[in-house]
Fold:
Amino acid sequence: MNFTSLPFLGFVTVSICAFWCAPNRYKWMILLIFSMYYGWSLSGLFMLHGLIVSCFVYFVTLFVDKQKELMRANKGAGDYKEIKQRGKRKTSLVLATGTIALLLSWLFLKFLPQIDLAHRASSFSGWIAPAGISFYTLSLLSYLIDVCNGNCKAEKNIGKVILFTIYYPCIVQGPINRYGNLRDQFEKPVFHYNEFVCGFEQVVWGYFKKMVLADRLFQFTKGAFQGQYAGSQLILASIMAEIQLYADFSGGIDIACGISKMMGINMPLNFDFPFLASSISEYWRRWHITLGNWMRDYIFYPLSLSKPMTKLGKIIRKHNKEAAAIIPGILSMAALWVFCALWHGNSLNFVLWGLYFWLLVSLDTIIEKKRDGLIQRQAKAIQVVIHIVQVAATFVLASIGEMISQSNGWQGATTNLKNLFAPSDAKVFLFTADKFDRKDWLVVAVALVVLVTFELLSAFFFNKKLKERLAEGSLPLRWMLLIVGILVTLIFGYYGAGYDPTPFVYFQF
Structure:
């Protein structure tokens, strides 16, 4: 059931009605039943992977919790120091074993199906990875690590751990959750009319972005990086691909968060106006925030604060204090971007994509202080102009990164990078694509105006997001805008006879 299909809309309607009709103590069970059905509809028997790893993490965290209880019970005893050290060793061993097991199962199921084994074992030819495996693997890893580090108590109810793993609005493309943030919401959801309507508005807004803008642009961008464009045309195609990805991904997140909000469950923020960023570092702090926060907390901080990095920093500090503050962080970011590239795919163009952004973020880290100090010494008017130029440059650099990720392997990516500096053979706006004409460009242009206006109003003219302000406004205005949004999506959305629902870009992860 794709998010944009009619069966999914019916499924959501029934699940929300069943959820609010059920007694409070059974609400999480209703969510679990619907989540299991949805997982089965997407992955069939492969959803068993999510159930198995959930049970595995459940028993591991219970073991860790017992070790911590044992240490607490023996506090003050004569041999407490020995008991504490033994408990820490067991916890560290269990954490390492659990982490490796989760990562290996993820790598095995995610990447083995993409290897051509036809000449070795034809039985593997039909293998597919479970839907959302990359998302729920990271969620379970965060839960396991948080329990081991004492940041979260182990859940005693195995059903709630399974629900956390396969919760249906988030299983396709996130956001990536932490169990500590969802535990109470699963147990004690509270109905608020304003929150319910705000969630509904967010769902409609998500469908607008997905069906009116993303799915229509996809008809152009899906074949835009086969080496046929160069120069200004290729840059514009990259910008269109970046906009398409944003409308697709953030639209799907809006649908997932809106459905959750309609059930009294608040999801973490995943986008914060990324195209207003004035540097690549800021862009990644605003884009796919839950993934960025996960990698920051579980990869970057542990590495940058580790003994080898601390020792390296001390050695470098003897020669250069500024370098000592930067180099360990840059090296830690290298590991982060390797993981990020691997998380997105095993094609070599993703390796180049990771290297590209690592270099840009590293350069930004090196020059950040001097650059900001230089800008602050300028007049206010000049600062505004510089900021606008920085935002535009960041947007173009991010778009080039998207071009790399959509290229066909290493050769395709390097060819497109070379073509960026080649002259364009035609006028910038003379694009051709199958089933994509001037009417489509007109709809895209109008949808972009709506999107940009909405985002700018939210970012600069309201201290809250515009969706939340509308939810607090007058009842007639709210429902009028909601009905208009539904009608616009139905009239201009990309669907109908012969329409093949476009999977969300992040569904493949």
